[in-house]
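Question (not urgent): is this output format expected?
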Amino acid sequence: MRLAWLLAFVLLAVSAAAQTAFYDAPRVDARGKPGTLVRAQAMEGAPLNAAAYRVLYRSTSFDGRPILVSGVVIVPQGAPPPGGRPIVAWAHPTSGIVPPCAPSLALFFFQQVQGLRTMVRNGYVVAATDYPGLGTPGPHPYLVGLSEARAVIDSVRVARSLPGAGGGSRFIVWGHSQGGHAALFTGLIAKSYAPELTLLGVAAAAPASELADLMDDDLSTPAGKNITAMTLWSWQRVYDAPMDKVVDPRAMPAIDKLARECIEGPWDISVRNRTTRPLEQHFLTVAHPADVEPWRDLLAKNTPGPVPRDIPVFLAQGLDDAIIRPAVTQNYFDRLCKGGSKARLYLMPGVGHGGAAMKSALEAIAWMTARFAGETPPSDCGK
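Got this back:
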């Protein structure tokens, strides 16, 4: 037992040292064109026939400030085709809300990017942002749509300009859970934020498409309490939204502890569930925080509307998902159809929230491949 604790301490110390060495930079370095590279560092462990680079790049915060964001770019070996390689922007699910929780710091980063090896074999550059405040100084603007989407798009810009990457101007965004939320917001702002890029499609597995439902519907579960606690903690710091309007003071120690715990795998979820237990006794002072200002307005502001009808959408949803209810994704799909979108809805019986991206990855990549090939997008609307 003592050896296990010592090993954990050493691993944490190594991560902290790596974060200090690579992720810290003077604030002045953020000034410059969004999507330009500040520094890159080769990473070990990339899939066969690929190279990977940890990157630090310039972006724009949700409120318009120049910021630095970290991430990873994975590049297939060999010469790029004429016009450059297609780019897939991977938007990761919830990993935490403080800087040490950056996926690019994770011991098993490459296993977390669902479909990565297939995408590399297909010749795609994969750009995987950490989002602001993960890796770089926090707090992380959790489930803040503009923040996520700008970081995603600027990671694509980096993938184009990184020496040797050979990325072209065409890209698809692929995300899970929080990353699905980021993917939908990317679809909403891509044309205005990066007119030099061409977004060919949005692929989202179990996306957080309705934040008020997410906050209200799931409060009876440990996962729901986790998500609500992280959102409240983050938004108090990001938006100056006072938690004491909705949180029992006796819940604050558990919420503060949750805010500092990262999620890399099932073990971390088990640890967080133990941390969540005190919230069974004392958590919120209101039944529906989504009905209380400023939370109601902020939840509405960060709930994505339907992406433009000319951008095809792939939605994957596990029918056993207790966090993102299938009815919520179905409702978003129906809204896309009503607006005239070409939308695919891939439903997976027996699949819960955590497995949504893994179980749908091959189907999603086949859909992406057809988009890069210029094929007419399929649609399940009207079926």
